[in-house]
């Protein structure tokens, strides 16, 4: 008769395991977003400084207080600003992606919450 005996996992233990797993996933996504935000803040500061420097250099060039070296410097700053702007756009895309993932995780966990699992178990037990 031992052939027909089997043990099932404790549903409460399963729910706790699932909860811990999704908490880790949310923590990881929060860390991911935080890293992106930190990079974005640093890059945005550098972008604003180089923009101001380029504006002053351009003004000096227009006021004929500069030479060809300033013109080359402005060209270099313009290229740097383009790279910074592209990177900022990429970081915004990454943030939007992470927000979408967080939304999916939250929707999934709320649809599969303890209450829903208990309801699901009760429905299947009555079948």
Describe it for me?
With 127 residues, this protein is mostly helical. It has three helices and no strands. The longest helix has 52 residues, at 11-62. It is rod-shaped. The chain starts with 10 loop residues before the first helix and ends with a helix. The mean pLDDT is 85.
Task: Please describe the topology of this protein.
Layout: H1 11-62, H2 68-111, H3 114-126
Helix pairs in contact: 1-2
Q: Determine the N-to-C terminus distance.
A: 27 Å
Number of helices: 3
The unreliable regions are none
Mind telling me the C-alpha Rg? 28 Å
- Described by the principal axes of the CA atoms, the overall outline is rod-shaped
Summarize the structure.
The protein is an all-alpha fold and about 130 residues long. The chain has three helices and no strands.
Which keywords apply here?
127 residues; 86% helix; rod-shaped; mainly alpha
